[in-house]
Amino acid sequence: MEKSKVDMFIGMNAENFNPQDLMIIKDKLEKMEDDKFFMVQSSEFQKPSNIFLIAILLGWERFWLDDIALGIIKIITCYGCLIWWLVDIFSAKDRAKKYNFKKFTQITSFM
Predict the structure, then answer these.
(1) pLDDT digit string (tens) for 68-81?
(2) For residue 65, how far is the Cα from the chain centroid?
(3) SS3 annotation, 79-90
(4) Alpha carbons 4 and 81: distance in angstroms, whole number
(5) How far apart are CA 99 and CA 48, in angstroms?
(6) HEC profile for 40-108?
(7) pTM for the structure as a whole
(8) C-alpha–C-alpha distance, residues 44 and 57, integer Å
(9) How far is residue 19 CA from its own chain's centroid?
(10) What is the Cα–Cα distance from 19 to 76, expressed in whole angstroms?
(11) Of 19, 45, 52, 94, whose CA is between 20 and 30 Å from 62?
């Protein structure tokens, strides 16, 4: 894989991952063939800032992060008397970054 393509991907998606995960991503991308890179490049990752706003305004961020069961339970319990809503606001960005890294590893594991 060309270093410029790897650097471009890292630059465009750095905010979507934790800093410690970026080194792992960079290593996997450098070892990847060019034709397989297009699968990774075409996938869409959740923006942590958008997930944070959804968590504040709606409290439905768990649905965007494929955590459907807990999202339903959260809504049924009236956001856990608003305690769950507050906790989720503070953890939304971190959960979005973990979701993105999990998605990246799933995509690259098939290669």
Answers:
(1) 998 898 888 887 77
(2) 8
(3) HHHCHHHHHHHH
(4) 49
(5) 10
(6) HHHCCCCCHHHHHHHHHHCCCHHHHCCCHHHHHHHHHCHHHHCHHHHHHHHHHHHHHHHHHHHHHHHHH
(7) 0.90
(8) 23
(9) 13
(10) 35
(11) 19
Amino acid at 26: K
For residue 79, give both structure tokens.
């956001």
- Closest by CA to 48, choosing from 99, 93, 91, 104, is 93
Sorted by where each begins, the domain ranges of the chain are: 3-109
The tens digit of pLDDT for each residue in 32-67 reads: 888 788 888 889 999 999 999 999 999 899 999 999
Compute CA 52 distance to the chain's CA centroid, rounded to the nearest angstrom: 12
